[in-house]
Amino acid sequence: MAGRYLDAAIGLLQRVRDEEADRITAAGELIADAVAAEGRLFAFGAGHSSLAAQDVVYRAGGLALMNLLSVPGVVGVDVMPATLGSALERVNGLAGAVLDSSPVRPGDVLVIISLSGRNSLPVEMAVNARALGLKVIGVTSVAYATETKSRHVTGSFLKDHCDLVLDSKIAVGDAELALDSVDAPFGPASTMVASALMQAMMASAAAALAARGIQPPLLRSANVDGGHDWNGRVFSEYGDRIFYRH
Fold it and tell me: Quick one: signal sequence residues (predicted)?
């Protein structure tokens, strides 16, 4: 069964590699545009989608300028009860309040990760961000937009309000495995695929910057010799665009 899961995961990664390649490259160019223009970078996700957002923030080998846009109560499952996070995703107006109190400004890039893209929070986050002049990249499963109903008052999905959408190819229900002897499907893969898409996007952005003659502001591991000093220099040079150290 473990082998079946890994085969399914590999198959999904191969699909996003082959079918989303052009959009991943385009996303990297959008991020490179913002970095070159002294813009800021932000990532947002609710619940388990937040894991993929967190994976590109303060990350060895990653862009130092990527910041987590945090919404209290929906980052991970540490809130008690855990079901509160799911409820908050359906609250109208929350996204606007978060953006209004954040350091975002026109020209910045916001990556929004939401498996279904159907709840109010990710939809309104995209709508409000674009109204503020940000470029929005969505990482979502397009299948949900054709097989489920939106929970937003407009009936729209995250994918409808993005400058660019990366399709994770995850089937509705996020379960890759089934057994006749098990009542429910199992083996979710959305976090793995979303994280891979995020890291592929960051790699494309680094390459795009280098192609323009700009050294990408990358972090090194603090657990290798010289890494701490390297990161200190990056923090000093780009401190006005890094918010996870304030």
Answer: none
Q: 């229900």: which residue's tokens?
A: 173
Among the listed residues 7, 9, 1, the one whose alpha carbon sits nearest the alpha carbon of residue 188: 9
Q: Which of 90, 128, 138 is nearest to 106 (CA)?
A: 128
Round to whole Å and give the CA distance between 95 and 87.
14
- What's the mean pLDDT in 208-227? 97
H/E stretch holding 50 reads helix 49-54
Please tell me the number of Cα atoms within 13 Å of 88 on its side-chain side.
21
Question: Measured between alpha carbons, how far is 31 from 49 in angstroms, rounded to an integer?
Answer: 20
Q: What is the pTM of this model?
A: 0.95
Pairing mode, if any, of strands 135-140 and 109-113? parallel
Better pLDDT: 245 or 98: 98
